[in-house]
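This entry is set out below.
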Amino acid sequence: MVAMRHWPLHQLDIKNAFLHGDLEEDIYMEQPPGFVAQGEYGLVCKLRRSLYGLKQSPRAWFGKFSHIVQLFGLKRSEADHSVFYCQSSPGKCVYLIVYVDDIVITGNDATKIVQLKEHLFSHFQTKDLGYLKYFLGIEVAQSGDGVVISQRKYALDILEETGMQNCRPVDSPMDPNLKLMADQSDIYPDPERYRRLVGKLIYLTITRPDIFFAVGVVSQFMQSPHVDHWNAVMRILRYIKRAPGQGLLYEDKGNMQVSGYCDADWAGCPIDRKSTSGYCVFIGGNLISWKSKKQTVVARSSAEAEYRSMALVTCELMWIKQLLQELKFCEVARMKLFCDNQAALHIASNPVFHERTKHIEIDCHFIREKLLSKEITTEFINSNDQPADILTKSLRGTRIQFICSKLGAYDLYAPA
């Protein structure tokens, strides 16, 4: 097991990243207006370096960056191609994460990190931003007790842009009694504004699992939003105003147990009667992955809806296990899957198929295979203690606060 309590996070930024990427194959472009060679109309230019705006540029840049990083000795993760890692010595490791030209480096080998930075400096025009504080709109606060991530500035910018900075806060992002329909009110006059705002709220869910379900509901009406849909978005903003600095706390809780919680709201959508799946995954008691998604088929029973949700979180658990084992981050013991539906748990452990389950045979075989290999164990959890409940339906304020405390929600800016 690797303890990462004292690992610092370093941030780097590479300038003009695409211009440094050598092309992996011959690429041609039309001669730009004003630079056409005399008498050579209809010809094209062969590019020696990638240019901004071309669809090949990101691939060319990432290929160049990957080659340089691997020359240093880092390996690219097969589970996540944006992650590079190396085991410098027994118990010592370095991890690098890249998003376009923004880089985060962490690990417990300070010497190797310094050498990696110098290697990048020698190949790219790179700026060392020091300890990680702000990355892709996410604010990071580090201390010896843990790490807090939030999007306070991003949330305040949304409130200011919409004129909601002085609005009256509410204790829930969506009214539990509200069922949004496609054509239940007048058409909203500015659909582009609606789409931009909902898109920004989707990005805010990176650190706010408590608004994931509500944002998912309003995002279903992007094509033709109505006034009621806009009012639902405004309620989400009023909920955000209640605690714009709320984020997630990550701390060392003394274990590295991987556990997943899944839930489903059977036939919850009033339009097509499809169910909503929700799951959240914890490592060592810290929330690292969550999702709320409408199912693609209509479930014929609540057990079937819950079972499809179990299959969804099982896929996520297997990917997380692959990533952790590849990075040698920790020894992954048997993962736990918690569900609050007894019928779904019995289907998972019972190898007999009958007419009520034969149409979900693939999901049954997938989950059952993981249970038989003892990679995952299933356990029952009471609905009152189910943290994934917040990802499948609208809840009351007190219930939201209870689940947020279980998810590790933390407001660094709350008054003491």
Confidence is low (pLDDT under 50) at residues 1-6.
